[in-house]
């Protein structure tokens, strides 16, 4: 594997399968009474978050601690960044602290890439602007594989606010690498202009795609990033692109429902669908810790896992 994880496009098929297979092994740790390995003892992982995040930050923190790494949580609010310190100055501070890995979430697309040029440690992109979120795509693929088996030939439908979604882009890239067939479903106003270059199909009709889908992933409508011009009303959006009980009835029996969270219940997904046996939403959160353990483990050069997990 490369030294950084900036984009899902950085991962070859072998890289991606190595992470997923390693996560499978590490999942055994979560079944133990003591959920810890000594693998990264003496290593320092810095969580550098310029945007609010609950699940992703806690997930990375739990992952690093389960591998016995020292964790420093750096929130941009209340730090020198809020006084005008630049990303480069912050990077130099982290470098002076001897960070072995920096997990960064930033509002600007490309920030993790810039950071990787300034620090000697590994950089993991935990979400940059509307660009990418590769570990979310990995945990989603891990969840799909646990429910459905190998992803070659599987049909994955991603629905909703693709334009503002870093999760959608990373999922399209990774799932294509893993051999799945991805279809994006959204109103034309919520698709990026570059979508023609993505390795996926595009549809505007959710009902026609559902019967063929093995996975239906609903995206959060990111109200904070948009104004009302993207669709007429929330009710109209929900009517055309929301996943409710009637739409779920069109899916085949083994098909699963996913959501990267946080959800707008009642808008893009009905509460009864989110809480149904088809839903993997709670599993995705749990699998996030395991998958991020695998990423940190492999980036920071963990030894062979075989002797540590019995």
UniProtKB/TrEMBL annotation:
Function description: Catalyzes the condensation of carbamoyl phosphate and aspartate to form carbamoyl aspartate and inorganic phosphate, the committed step in the de novo pyrimidine nucleotide biosynthesis pathway.
Swiss-Prot/TrEMBL catalytic activity: carbamoyl phosphate + L-aspartate = N-carbamoyl-L-aspartate + phosphate + H(+)
PANTHER family: ASPARTATE CARBAMOYLTRANSFERASE, ORNITHINE CARBAMOYLTRANSFERASE, MITOCHONDRIAL
GO molecular function (one): amino acid binding
Gene3D superfamilies attached to this UniProt entry: Aspartate/ornithine carbamoyltransferase
Domain spans labelled Aspartate/ornithine carbamoyltransferase carbamoyl-P binding: 3-145
Family listed: Belongs to the aspartate/ornithine carbamoyltransferase superfamily. ATCase family.
Subunit structure: Heterododecamer (2C3:3R2) of six catalytic PyrB chains organized as two trimers (C3), and six regulatory PyrI chains organized as three dimers (R2).
Gene Ontology biological-process entries: 'de novo' pyrimidine nucleobase biosynthetic process; 'de novo' UMP biosynthetic process; amino acid metabolic process
Keywords: Pyrimidine biosynthesis, Transferase
Record-annotated Aspartate/ornithine carbamoyltransferase Asp/Orn-binding domain positions: 152-299
Entry-linked Pfam families: OTCace, OTCace_N
Protein name as annotated: Aspartate carbamoyltransferase
Gene Ontology cellular component annotations, sorted alphabetically: cytosol
Pathway: Pyrimidine metabolism; UMP biosynthesis via de novo pathway; (S)-dihydroorotate from bicarbonate: step 2/3
Database matches in SUPFAM superfamilies: Aspartate/ornithine carbamoyltransferase
Enzyme class: transferase
NCBIfam families: asp_carb_tr, PRK00856.1
InterPro entries documented for this protein: Asp/Orn_carbamoyltranf_P-bd, Asp/Orn_carbamoylTrfase, Asp/Orn_carbamoylTrfase_sf, Asp_carbamoyltransf, Asp_carbamoyltransf_Asp/Orn-bd
UniProt binding sites for L-aspartate: 83, 166, 220
EC number of this enzyme: 2.1.3.2
């Amino acid at each position: 594997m490369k030294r950084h994880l900036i984009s899902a496009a950085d991962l070859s098929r072998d890289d991606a399968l190595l992470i997923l297979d390693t996560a499978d092994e590490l999942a055994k740790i979560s079944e133990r009474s003591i959920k810890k390995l000594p693998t990264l003892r003496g290593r320092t992982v810095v969580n550098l978050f310029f945007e609010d995040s609950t699940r992703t930050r806690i997930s990375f923190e739990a992952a690093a601690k389960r591998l016995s790494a020292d964790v420093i949580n750096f929130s941009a609010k209340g730090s020198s960044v809020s006084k005008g310190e630049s990303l480069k100055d912050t990077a130099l501070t982290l470098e002076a602290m001897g960070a072995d890995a920096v997990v960064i979430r930033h509002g600007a697309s490309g920030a993790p890439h810039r950071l990787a040029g300034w620090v000697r440690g590994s950089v993991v992109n935990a979400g940059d602007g509307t660009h990418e979120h590769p570990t979310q795509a990995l945990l989603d693929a891990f969840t799909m594989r646990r429910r459905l088996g190998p992803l070659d030939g599987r049909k994955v439908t991603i629905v909703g606010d693709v334009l503002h979604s870093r999760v959608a882009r990373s999922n399209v890239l990774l799932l294509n690498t893993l051999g799945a067939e991805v279809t994006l479903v959204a109103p034309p106003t919520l698709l990026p202009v570059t979508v023609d270059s993505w390795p996926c199909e595009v549809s505007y009709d959710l009902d026609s795609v559902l019967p063929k889908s093995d996975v239906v992933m609903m995206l959060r409508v990111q109200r904070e990033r948009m104004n009302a011009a993207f669709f007429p009303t929330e009710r109209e959006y929900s009517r055309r692109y929301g996943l409710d009980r009637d739409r779920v009835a069109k899916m085949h029996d083994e098909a699963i429902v996913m959501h990267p969270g946080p959800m707008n219940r009642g808008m893009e997904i009905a509460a009864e669908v989110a809480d149904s046996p088809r839903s993997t939403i709670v599993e995705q959160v749990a699998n996030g810790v395991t998958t991020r353990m695998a990423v940190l483990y492999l980036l920071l050069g963990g030894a062979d896992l075989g002797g540590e997990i019995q």
